[in-house]
Amino acid sequence: MTAPESESLVESIMDNHTTFTKPQTLFTKNRLNDSDDDEEEECDVEVWEMLSKSFIQVQSVLDQNRVLINQVNENHQSKIADNLAKNVALIREINTNISKVLSIYSDLSLNFSTIVHQRRAAMINCKRSVDDKA
């Protein structure tokens, strides 16, 4: 793949914006009573909002990087010494943004894992209380 082909590939990938829409239901399970429905729906909203917020933050940083990358490319193509010198700062900013994306995904992973563990524990406790009543 030549440099122009790879540039057009990167640009086409970066031009594809993903729209996030909430699915009808995120999780299905046998429901014990109406209060479980409400609690599950609240949890679904919590999970969905966490995912959406994180993906929106990531998309914002990636959009910012697209602008910076385009500027770096323009500076490089101009071959003007001052513009080439500006690329150092621009590339540092791109690297900083990549670190931000990594941090957002790391936080998302931790938060999602915590919610999953809390749900599992709640389901186990709920099942135990139902078994104890039987």
Automatic annotation (TrEMBL):
The keyword Nucleus applies. This is Protein EARLY FLOWERING 4 domain-containing protein. InterPro entries: EARLY_FLOWERING_4, EARLY_FLOWERING_4_dom. GO terms for biological process: entrainment of circadian clock; positive regulation of circadian rhythm; rhythmic process. Its main location: nucleus. Keywords: Biological rhythms, Nucleus. Belongs to the EARLY FLOWERING 4 family. It comes from Quercus rubra. It is found in: Nucleus. Pfam families: Elf4. Residues 42-121 form the Protein EARLY FLOWERING domain. GO terms for cellular component: nucleus.
